[in-house]
Amino acid sequence: NAGVTQTPKFRVLKTGQSMTLLCAQDMNHEYMYWYRQDPGMGLRLIHYSVGEGTTAKGEVPDGYNVSRLKKQNFLLGLESAAPSQTSVYFCASSRAASPSGELFFGEGSRLTVL
Amino acid sequence: DQQVKQNSPSLSVQEGRISILNCDYTNSMFDYFLWYKKYPAEGPTFLISISSIKDKNEDGRFTVFLNKSAKHLSLHIVPSQPGDSAVYFCAASGRNTDKLIFGTGTRLQVFP
Question: What domains are there in chain A, each with its CATH number?
Answer without folding.
Answer: 4-113 (2.60.40.10)
